[in-house]
Amino acid sequence: MRGVTIYLKKKIVPEIYIAVSFIVLMFVVSFIFKLPVIIPSGERARFVGIHYIYPLIGVALLGVLMLLFGKRAIAIRFLTAMPCYVVVLFAHFNFKLWIPHINPMLFDDLYWYIDTKLQFIVDFFYFFRLSIFGFVPFEANSYMILFIILFYSSFIYCAIIVPNSFGKLTVAVLLQQALGGLAYLVAPALGPFLYQEGVNPIITEGQAGMLRFYQASVAEGPAFLAANGSPNFSVGLAAMPSLHIAGAVLFLLFAWREAKVLVPIYSLILVFLTVTSVATRWHYLVDLPAGALLAWLCFAIAFGPHGRGAVAPVSAAVASPSWFGTRRARRTGAPLADDPNPEISKN
């Protein structure tokens, strides 16, 4: 039995553990609370795919190429990432739809009270969005597009330039989506748009539609979700914590560690997302540090000294470093990924 356990630890990457654990938890919660498991309709599935999954399709294709060139360990991580992420997202959005049926308490009044005490910050974000970022048109949906850019560029950069860190980045993102979905249940809130309109009338209209769906779900119960959840798979309301800010901070932490060249643009995108999330009234001020704290936690788990996201051990027989990684190692003086004695190579 011990031998089987050791074998599984060596063969099963942590992404699979996260995905399987989260989907099992989803079915357990569904059974306990008698909640329907919602499968997205075609339109909603495309929406989720474009926003979250498509970049990993490209990564999976890179994985096939690496497998053909003999880089089996890294290829396995590339090919594992997409199905695991699909599973985690599926469970995540189900949890988001279930929030009022698991924890019906709402903390909007408390969070709004904090916003009123810090109104000068909210006003500054309004001014910042309308003046400094006023050149960005409302109809451009820049809030979502810029987040997608962070997602795409981080995974593509990691896959090509620092492939040995790809597993760690995947683990961090999976943890963020899984723990974030559960964090929604701790102290739920719908959003400050309940009390105040944001600067973007297009988003305000969308918020009103999502609120109607939420109210109908509360009034009619799980039966409403079973009948109407598929075409509304991604419209669950949850403000606390902000997972867009969590994602932006997580990718900035990744850039700071592995891709310094991306730090300036990632920092600018984080500022825009922070300002816009408040100015459009998607989020209360307290949602932002909560999201940042979640990002730091997930990053620390995945990239910390005991993180299991790395491809290890990586030997020359399994996966030699990429051309980019070799140049990076020579430039910085770091040992190559397949160096059998990194201490000697430093001298």
Structural write-up:
The structure is a single chain. The chain contains 15 helices and no strands. Helix 2 packs parallel to helix 4 and helix 3 packs antiparallel against helix 4. The N terminus and C terminus are likely disordered. With 347 residues, it is an all-alpha fold.
In short:
By secondary structure, the protein is mainly alpha-helical. The chain is 69% helix and 0% strand.
Low-confidence stretches: 3-8, 309-332, 334-347
The coarse silhouette is globular
Number of continuous helical runs: 15
Q: Main sheet?
A: none
The SSE string, one letter per element, is HHHHHHHHHHHHHHH
Seen as an oligomer or otherwise, the chain set is single chain
Cα-atom Rg, whole angstroms? Answer: 21 Å
**Structural class of the helix and strand makeup?**
mainly alpha
Q: What is the residue-mean pLDDT, rounded to a whole number?
A: 81
Distance between the termini: 44 Å
